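dude i think i finally got it to work??
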Amino acid sequence: ATEEERLVGVPGGPWFRALLQWVANNSGVDEAVIRGYLRDVSAYLELPGCREAVQNVVRPALLPGESDDHGNPGVVVVGHSLGGVVCAELLAEEAIRRSVGLFIAVGAPLGLDAVTSRMRPRGSARPVSPWVNVFDPRDWVALGSPLRTSGGLVEQPRVANPRGYEHSIEHYLAHPVVATVIARAMPRPVQVNA
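look at this
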């Protein structure tokens, strides 16, 4: 488990994920799971002004800069955990959608109704832009994955991060499947003939 998970006492393992998935699907208790274990997601979705403050920090990084006007197909955006929720919402904005070539959500809670029903604008949990949902089946934050295919969802690689690091961004990014998805989507260098 990560240091944060150890501090808040989050149990791990496939049995815990299966139990949480069953509870979320059959009882509507996923809101309690979010409030209890995904406190950053809960704060983002519920605290007045939090969503806007976070988006105001992230938005400028996703908007094209002056030097980005070279016909490149767009940047590759990787959103981990809450970052996947934030980026999915921001992709609803036309200027951001045009500048992003591919969105890759890794270990994101985009399969939990208690999260997706509160995302704004409605439907932003399934961006229309091309995107990939990467998940470790043992990552309890990625409950609900694989997602039903809709919007621009083009691929859902399943990875196996080391035990105790199922939600680790470092391990997600180091996985060859994720590296391949990112490399395939990277804009090609622009050649300038003088």
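The chain has a mean pLDDT of 83.
im so relieved honestly
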